[in-house]
Request: fold
Amino acid sequence: MEEKAYAKINLTLDILGKKPNGYHSLDTVMQSIDLFDSIEVKKAEAGDIKVRTNKNYLPLDRKNTVWRAAEFFFEAAGICGGAEISIEKTIPSRAGMGGGSADAAAVLRALNRLYEAGLSNQALMDIGERVGADVPFCIQGGTGRCTDIGQKVERLAPMPSCHLLICKPPMGMSTPKAFQILDKYPKSNMLHTEKMVAALALGKLEKVARQLGNRFEETLRMRQVREIKKLMLESGALNAMMTGSGSAVYGIYTEQRKAEECGSRLEALGEIFLSRPLNSIP
Ligand code: C5P
Reply:
């Protein structure tokens, strides 16, 4: 069973506070994009979960999100099953593009079909929540407002069609580290999500681009991110922003040619991807 695991970008990311359990309350708009890892899932002996990938830095045990996704799936579905999972990674790691969450979501979708378990999307989202806060969004896909710790998803009007240039600088950022740094800053009153929701409802790309915002970008203040943004804005991007806890940056373009031209200029600063928003998981 083949399944594509689509990456996400954050159009906005507001941090509202810290909960007693150490997690943070968020209000964020996430957008699926047409950049994916390819996942293959096969049945295996009951109780057996095996993971293979084309990147040697990824763990192959419980620490891998897909391993836990499979374990929780069998438990929740009440199925005595096993899975052999191969992941061909394209989504960069430590980028803020939800690669691990996307892979877990794809494995849940694939197992549901492979074992004909008949679980609803909502049931898969509930299982996904146990793996990570971004997994429910990756199951739903499209454009969504994610609240609480990010696991509550509300569907939004789609992002207007455009071209996205993504640049991932060599340095990465781990999510827990990003939250630690953020905790040293006072709470911000500059919130972006509500205005983004209104801009999406209007369906105007220029308005959407104007409302991008990310509290992590403001607190992490990475030099590489600033350099990439500057080049994107100089090269005709409507706007540019870091995604999630970084370190990848995306620029929004109306013309593919401009995005490609800027991509070649940015090659020295990081890994380049050209993509488009995805309105739903195909
Ligand atoms: O849920 P996920 O595994 O993606 O989260 C990774 C880490 O990010 C958590 O262990 C936690 O430290 C931090 N986190 C947080 N608040 C959130 C989501 C994640 O502090 N809303």
The chain has a mean pLDDT of 97.
